[in-house]
Structure formats: C-alpha cells, structure tokens
C-alpha cells in the first residue's frame, strides 16, 4: 500500500497536480513517519508550490532518516538553488553523484546552477555529460536548447525545441522552451500558443504563467524596448555585458567632447543628456517591468476557449 501511495504521489507530481500528491504523501507519512523518500518527494512538491521553508524542513528530515539516498541530495540541491545558495546546491549535486553517478537530472541541475553563476563552459560540460548517459533524453535536449537560447543562438535553440517536441508534443518544458524562443524572435502569436497550451494542461504552471506575462510585457511599447535591450545584454554574459556598458559610456562621452571641440556645444550637451536618459530609463525600467509583471500574474485567469 505504501509503494502504491508513493507511486501515485509521484505521478501526480509529474503532472503538476501537487495538491493531490501532497495529500497522498501526508497520508503515507501518517502511517510511516520514517519514510525518507516520502519526505523527499513531499519536499519536491512543496518546492513546486514555492513553499521554500517547508520544503527545506522536509528534505532535511528525509536526509536525517536516510543520508545515503542520492535523490534526497538532488532535492536538497534544488531547494538551495531556489534560495540562491549556489555553492551549497553544487555541493549537494556532487553528493548525489557520488552516490549515483548515472543521475542525468543532477548533471542538468548543475548546468542550471552554473548558468546562473555565468560559468557557461561548466554549464555546457554538464549538459554534455548528461547527454553521454542518455542522448535521447527529452530533458537533455531541452537543456541544450535552453543553453543555446541563453547565448542568443536562436536557430540551434529552435532545433532542440523541435527535437524535444517530436519526442513528446505535450511536454511542458519543450513547449515552454519553444515559447521563449518565439518570444525572443518577436513571434508573439507562436509564443502565446505554446504558453497557453501549457497553461491549458497545467493551470498552476508558474513557468508558463511567467512566460505569458513576459509576452504581455513584450507587447507593451515602453516596457518592450527595455525587455528587448535587456534580453540582448543577458545573452552576452556578465563580463561582456559590463564591457558593452563601459564602451557605450566612453563612446557617448567621447562624442560629446568631440562635438564641443568642433564648436557644437549644443549637440554635445544633447549627447550627454541622451546618455543620462538611457541610464535613467534602465534604472526605472527594472522596477516598472517587475511591477507590471506582478500585476499581470495577479490578474491572470485562463479562458478554456483559447
């Protein structure tokens, strides 16, 4: 009976029905409070609902009961990732791999962490490692697509998304990837289609709701300009992005000085003010964008007639 409840909870969790999964796990744990896997899966379900402190408590409990289960270290790494404790997340990934070196999901999680740390070479290496274990794994193909999207190679990213959708046209991650690619390419109708498709199947999908909100923001003229500029800069990585910003600052200052030396102080001042306006726009754009994004998420409701 315990295995049945755990399997059922796992299926619910994979389908995004975390409330149902949690009900099954709580029932199981009321009968067997020392069931480490149940605590670990409960932590994963809570994490999917952004209940970080509860998820951390459950996975800590699970590891106290069974400190030799690689899956539990994987869940702990996910919790630390969501709390932006990147170093700890990588340590727990390594713990998981020391117990089970064949866990593809752990390599993909390490890749995700390295991308957030702007260590793209290490991120790519972990995807390659995962692919060496399961080259036809849909999650691996999506990870390749996410990597190519992050560096601005939309053609390769789209190829990966198509390959993943060919394996499973209803896969949430593959549809989200394709939606993000179409949004980056400016194809709003296609981006909306993939976002709405995922939401129709899983109305609680936070990534799909965020994608849909980003689509709405991209369609706004003022915030859309900021979105496009920010999206381009993020493809460069932190170091190159800083170099671009410094270069732009020096260019504007040089142009202003040249105009002043040529006897055009009015134009020189205009160039200086243009740079100042761009800086103010970048500062103001960030909070405005996230306020608008939060507003869209709060008022969002799904129409089944899409």
Number of helical elements:
16
Spans of at least 5 consecutive residues whose pLDDT stays below 50 are 301-306
Q: What structural category arises from helix and sheet content?
A: mainly alpha
Tell me about the largest β-sheet. none
- Rg, nearest Å: 23 Å
Strand content: under 5%
End-to-end distance, in Å?
40 Å
Calculate the mean pLDDT score and round it.
Answer: 82
The run of helices and strands is HHHHHHHHHHHHHHHH
Backbone shape: globular
Number of strands: 0
Provide the helix percentage. over 70%
List the topology elements.
Layout: H1 2-14, H2 18-31, H3 36-48, H4 52-65, H5 70-82, H6 86-99, H7 104-116, H8 120-133, H9 138-150, H10 154-167, H11 172-184, H12 188-201, H13 206-218, H14 221-234, H15 238-261, H16 265-299
Helix pairs in contact: 1-2, 1-3, 2-3, 3-4, 3-5, 4-5, 5-6, 5-7, 6-7, 7-8, 7-9, 8-9, 9-10, 9-11, 10-11, 11-12, 11-13, 12-13, 13-16, 15-16
């Amino acid at each position: 009976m315990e295995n049945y409840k755990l399997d059922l909870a796992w299926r619910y969790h994979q389908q995004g029905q975390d409330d149902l999964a949690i009900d099954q796990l709580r029932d199981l744990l009321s009968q067997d409070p020392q069931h480490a896997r149940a605590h670990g899966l409960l932590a994963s379900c809570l994490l999917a609902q952004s209940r970080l402190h509860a998820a951390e408590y459950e996975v800590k409990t699970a590891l106290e009961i069974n400190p030799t289960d690689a899956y539990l270290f994987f869940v702990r790494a996910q919790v630390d990732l969501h709390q932006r404790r990147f170093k700890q997340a990588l340590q727990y990934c390594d713990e998981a791999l020391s117990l089970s070196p064949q866990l593809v999901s752990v390599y993909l999680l390490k890749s995700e962490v390295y991308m957030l740390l702007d260590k793209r070479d290490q991120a790519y290496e972990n995807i390659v490692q995962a692919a060496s274990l399961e080259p036809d794994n849909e999650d691996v193909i999506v990870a390749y697509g996410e990597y190519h999207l992050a560096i601005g190679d939309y053609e390769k990213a789209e190829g990966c998304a198509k390959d993943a959708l060919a394996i499973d046209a209803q896969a949430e991650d593959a549809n989200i990837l394709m939606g993000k690619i179409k949004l980056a390419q400016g194809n709003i109708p296609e981006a909306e289609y993939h976002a709405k498709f995922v939401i129709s199947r899983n109305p609680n999908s936070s990534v799909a709701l965020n994608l849909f909100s980003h689509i709405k923001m991209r369609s706004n003229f003022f915030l859309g300009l900021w979105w496009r500029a920010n999206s381009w800069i993020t493809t460069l990585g932190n170091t190159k992005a800083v170099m671009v910003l410094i270069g732009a600052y020096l260019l504007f200052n040089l142009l202003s000085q040249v105009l002043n030396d040529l006897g055009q102080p009015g134009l020189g001042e205009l160039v200086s003010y243009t740079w100042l306006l761009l800086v103010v726009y970048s500062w103001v754009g960030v909070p405005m964008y996230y306020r608008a994004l939060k507003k869209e998420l709060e008022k969002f409701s799904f129409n089944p007639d899409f």
